[in-house]
Every structure is written in C-alpha cells, then in structure tokens.
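ok so for the tutorial part 2 we go from a plain amino acid sequence to predicted structure tokens. step 1 is just haveing the sequence, like this:
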Amino acid sequence: MEKKIALTIAGSDPSGGAGIQADLKAFNYVGVHGAAIITCITAQTPEKVFSIHKLPVEEIKKQAEAVFSRFKPDATKIGMLYDEETARCVADLLEEYKTKNVVLDPVLSASNGDTLSKNNLTGAIMEKLLPFIHLVTPNIPEAERLTGVKINTAEDAKIAAEILRDRGVKNVLIKGGHLKGKQAVDILFNGKKERIFS
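step 2 — the prediction. this is what the tokens look like for a chain of 198 residues:
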C-alpha cells in the first residue's frame, strides 16, 4: 500500500520545535510521507525570535510547482504565512492545485509572545484563505485577533467560531489553553454541533 502524502506550507524553525521541521516529524511519526513548501526562514529558539526572512512569492510558487508535479497531497497543513502577500499567494495555490483536507494553524505569534506576522495578515486570512480551509485551529489569542471577539468563556468561543465559519471554513477548533479555569479545553465547531475536548 502506498504511503499517504501530507504537505506542510509553513516557516522554517532551526530549533526544530515548530514550523516545517515539527510538521515533518509529526508526519513521519504517523507514517505519512511529508512534503514541504517554505514560506519564510526564521532564526528562533523557544525563548526568542531573532529574525524572519520572508521568501518571495515567486520562490513559493516554484516550490509548489515542484511539489505538485510529483505529488497529489492527501492533506495539507498551513502554518506561518507572515504577511498578506504570502497568504494571498497560498490561497491562489490552493485553488490552482485543487487541494483537499486543508488545515490552517494561523500562526500570528510565537509561544513566547514574539510576533510572527504583520498586521495585514489577519484580513487576508479572513477574506482570501478561509474558503479553502477544511479545519482552522486558532488558539484563543489568534481567534480574538481574527474575529475581534474577546474570548473569556466557551460561549464567546462559539461566537468567534461562527464568525470564522461565516467566512467559508467548514470546521473550527479553538484551542482553549488560554481560557480561564482549572481545565484547558479545546472546542470543535462544525455548524451543527460542538464537541469539547479536555
């Protein structure tokens, strides 16, 4: 039986803790072949982001041409996009290559709080990218930035999820590690029902 193919479209993290390096490790762990399109090169550790070098969209398109000339991914995961131009380029690629099972982890800042995006990225995600996405997985600060909804409760998360779904994404998983309370919960919304994972 042929291995399934998973594609990551994300930034490069030299520490291996995030970005395409982490995605490729995860793909390998679950037994799928990983392919990658790099959007930007970061110099970072878990404690600090030293620099971000955005790749020109023409380079991103060339990588996509190479990947899609060889593979038809069964699933695609999108991570760090950095700015509006890159987000629009990736949306165009998703449409051109008719990708399926696309997951968007809207990386807006590093776990230490350092910014990994420009302010205009959120608008491009909401307007251009979400219609191509099967599942979006923002944490609470990311969901707040994307939707403008302050999330303090599960009900607030549901309101934010509906705003995201109104932009075309089918499923929303809001990662609730930042919610107040003793237990961290993730909430999955698909428009018909919600599921809570704790």
